[in-house]
Here is the input.
Amino acid sequence: MATRTALDDVKADCRKTAAKCRDKAAREMPEAALQLAGHARLVKQHFNLNVIAGYWPIKTELDCRPLMAALSEHKQSVMTGNINLALPVITAAHAPLRFHLWEQADVLEEGPYQTCQPCADRPEVDPDLILVPLLAFDKTYHRLGYGGGFYDRTLASLAEKGHRFSAIGVAYDTQYLQEVPIGPFDRALDGIITPSGLYLKDQDDKSWDTEN
Here is the structure.
């Protein structure tokens, strides 16, 4: 059995604080999901999209479904056709996530950890853009998750097989921390999308970074 490390303890304490912060933001910003969807055109300008993977929100995660709907309403170009949507499927506790196509009218199955996921007969896909839930993020675009390691394993697995993709975190602006505790397997995101806008790793303008 693996022993807890000092980093584990720091992350556990940070998760408790970050969860309270997100809970507060969810109560105070009921229009946040619609504000997020308002940035759909900006997302399309920066990413070459065919398949977008989001998530079915649990707890007080910022709902990315209106953004996904807004992104799927328009064709990226005559050449690429419609933008397809996908949701993650948990197959095992220590396995990477798999992504299956999803349409808003689909009936979903109940998954682990109170999640909802597409039925197994829906086609499996590798997304071009992954919208990632989180508890906190920092100026280096690292995220703090729940500790299960699902997204870290998933992003690493896609990269190892040579699939080109981008991953952006979905968050309230107040989920920003100056520094998220990270370990050797934690991977930085390519950007963060919040109700105030889309922020990319190679940009200097970060309105949520008010202390640096």
